[in-house]
Amino acid sequence: MGIEVKYNQTLGKEITLSSLKEQYNAIFIAIGSNVSMKMQIEGEKLEGVYGGNQLLEENCHPNYQKKKVAVIGGGNVAMDCARTIKRKGAQEVYVMYRRAEEQMPAERKEIEEAKEEGIQFLFQHNIVKILPKEETKQVGKIEYVKTELVQKPGELRLSPVDIKDSNEQMEMDYVVMAIGSKPEQEIMEKLPIDKTEKGYIKVDKDYMTTQEGVFAGGDIIGTKATVAWASRAGRNVAEAIDRYLQKQ
Ligand SMILES: Cc1cc2nc3c(=O)[nH]c(=O)nc-3n(C[C@H](O)[C@H](O)[C@H](O)COP(=O)(O)OP(=O)(O)OC[C@H]3O[C@@H](n4cnc5c(N)ncnc54)[C@H](O)[C@@H]3O)c2cc1C
Q: Which one of 113, 206, 211, 233 is most buried, counting C-beta atoms within 10 A?
């Protein structure tokens, strides 16, 4: 179709928005939102705590042989992490999720397949602390509390509330955080376009950013993070860019 692909070109590093604007009439930013979020709990900086997205994207897995791994979260990223880690030889893999199984956002099929592969699920468990192995900076234990689910006004889903004094500890070798992702802050700060309150790229109804001729879509605009939504955005943006170029 005559599309030219230029590899190893990172927006915000090798290329800037202004350099692109000099060369192109329209630009579409679809850089995703793939930096794993943190929980801000004690021990999260210990060696052996990973972000789920980075672990899969950078393929930076440690040796899991004879190791116990806790994956925190209940979405598709958590399922992919848990299943990948199990297949890479981990002895025990636990998925720890704050709500009940019915509320898990991961696809049903993924959950069933994860169970068949021997992954253990700890529902209504909320990790509160990660403790080091004695005299090291390496993960040794996790501490969690049980939760109860309550209907809070204005909330669509039942909300997990920690049960007081239900703390328990479990020995663990690695912890993987798969509780959501956000855009790469360093790159976002370099983009001279408006962002939403949550830090995604702000677009209008035609997916145009606050810079004329610069469009954005997919996870980077903060819509539902699924392939279907991203694909639809790609198609909508292509049509919007076509309309925009015809007016030029
Ligand atoms: C582990 C995992 C499992 C998932 N499972 C499912 C699932 O089962 N079902 C489902 O529907 N969705 C799933 N998703 C979500 C789905 O993958 C995303 O919603 C979708 O890929 C978003 O598409 P996108 O094009 O916006 O961004 P991405 O697919 O993330 O693509 C962004 C691209 O931009 C590149 N990039 C990033 N920064 C820059 C930069 N500064 N300059 C240049 N290029 C850059 C990235 O390398 C990447 O290639 C999953 C996501 C993850 C991470």
A: 233
Q: Does domain 17-33+183-247 have CATH number 3.40.50.1820?
A: no
Cα distance between residue 201 and residue 191, in whole Å: 9
**What integer pLDDT is reported at residue 157 of this predicted model?**
84
Q: Ligand 1 center to residue 31 CA distance, Å? A: 8
Chain-centroid distance, C-alpha 77: 7
pLDDT at 245 exceeding the cut of 90: yes
The Cα 83–Cα 96 span in angstroms is 14
Give percent above pLDDT 90 in the chain. 95
CA distance 201 to 196: 6
- Ligand 1 centre from 178 Cα, in Å? 14
User: Rounded to two decimals, what is the model's pTM?
Assistant: 0.90
